[in-house]
Specification:
mainly beta; eight-stranded parallel beta sheet
Length: about 130
């Protein structure tokens, strides 16, 4: 289902795009709420808005920001710029160019931080690795 906007596509079974421009929900029961050039390709994935964000992991989500990716199963990126949550059940809450690659890992913010160990956390700062 496509609710509005321009150039949007909901190609996945049970998927939806509510609005915005050039968004695509291709995963099974996936959704994109708005923004531009966002894609929800993982099954049960969601992108709520922003620009050029991707939720490719199953049950993954990107809430907003720019050029963020949630590729791990059950992963999430809340916002910021250039962040990636690639570990299963990992999360990046904001900042820019942060990565949570360990299973259950998290980066709360800052700049170019990485939580690569399983269950590891980086609260913030610059160039930190856990």
């Amino acid at each position: 289902t496509v609710g509005g906007g321009e150039g949007n596509a909901a190609s996945g079974i049970g998927s939806s795009v509510s609005g915005g421009e050039s968004n695509e929900a291709s995963g099974l029961i996936s959704s994109v709420s708005g923004g531009e050039y966002n894609e929800a390709s993982g099954s049960e994935s969601a992108v709520n808005g922003g620009y050029n964000n991707a939720a490719s992991g199953s049950a993954s989500s990107v809430s907003g920001g720019e050029i963020n990716a949630a590729s791990g199963i059950g992963s999430s990126v809340s916002g910021g710029d250039g962040n990636e949550a690639s570990g299963g059940r990992s999360a990046v809450n904001g900042g820019y160019y942060n990565e949570a690659s360990g299973v259950g890992s998290a980066v709360s913010g800052g700049h170019e931080n990485e939580a690569s160990g399983d269950s590891s956390t980086v609260i913030g700062g610059i160039f930190n690795i856990a």
